[in-house]
Amino acid sequence: MTKILVIAEHLDGKLNPSTARAVSAAAAVKPEAIDVLVLADNADAIAAEAAKIEGVTRVLTANRTENAHALAAVLAPQVAKAAAGYSHVFAPSTTFGKDLGPRVAALLGVPQVSDVMTVEGSHTFKRPVYAGNAIVTVEADPALPVVATIRTASWPAAAIGANSAPVEALGLDVALPSHTRFVELKQGKSDRPDLQSASKVVSGGRGVGSKENFEIIYKFADRIGAAVGASRAAVDAGYVPNEMQVGQTGKIIAPELYMAIGISGAIQHLTGIKDAGTIVAINKDAEAPIFEVADIGLVGDLFKIIPELESAL
């Protein structure tokens, strides 16, 4: 019997869109049931959101004060306990899932399947290797539970609002470790769309020239209602904070529109945008690798082209 447990990612009482993408991957397995597990100190509002995701059979909640903050060391024993009777445990391949998944796999004594891009069968998956330059087919042992992280950029979000799954509270009798504790969370606050779920993203690279010059990227992104990203070169140069980095060692995204401004297009950056719908590149170097993947390319000075685009808008 194929039953999948999807671990919900949430923050500040709201469900992350990555959860609905993980549900899409779960549906591709064609299981008999897809249950979503919400671990929080007050899971009611989050569970209500999860219950509306199309394809979800049940929403299970684990309310504990220790779950107020997403600490993988604290959540993993609860997930491993809740996973009894399930053939698969899925989590989004975000910072949250990459931290939690390996711990759950270790507790269950199974290897993890990482960054699932496509489902070929109940225990057969495709995932990227070598910075996305190759795709491998992985077969998991059907005799063991499958613990997998889902590459969210490769999956559409399951529809929300078309379902009304029942919500059930779980009583998980499990001892939690005390060697890890929450101190504080430091995160950037922005009124712009979330980088990982935005439909439009404008990214700047080393070609922007400085932290001060990056204002032209922010201004243009705000004009078209886009999230703002950056290449690793821009992050390393101190133009922007590292949570804005797009690429192999940053965020893997799949917006409908991606604008790469002053970005040369190193393979590590291209790995992060390979699933984007339309890629627009602006660079003064006509030989920049970014033009090899761009649907639309503009060769020229970004400080002249961006104001021209704003005037056209």
Automatic annotation (TrEMBL):
Keywords: Electron transport, FAD, Flavoprotein, Transport. Gene3D superfamilies: HUPs, TPP-binding domain. Residues 4-186 form the Electron transfer flavoprotein alpha/beta-subunit N-terminal domain. SMART domains: ETF. Residues 187-206 are annotated as: Disordered. Belongs to the ETF alpha-subunit/FixB family. PANTHER family: ELECTRON TRANSFER FLAVOPROTEIN ALPHA (PTHR43153), ELECTRON TRANSFER FLAVOPROTEIN SUBUNIT ALPHA, MITOCHONDRIAL (PTHR43153:SF1). This is FAD-binding protein. It comes from Frateuria flava.
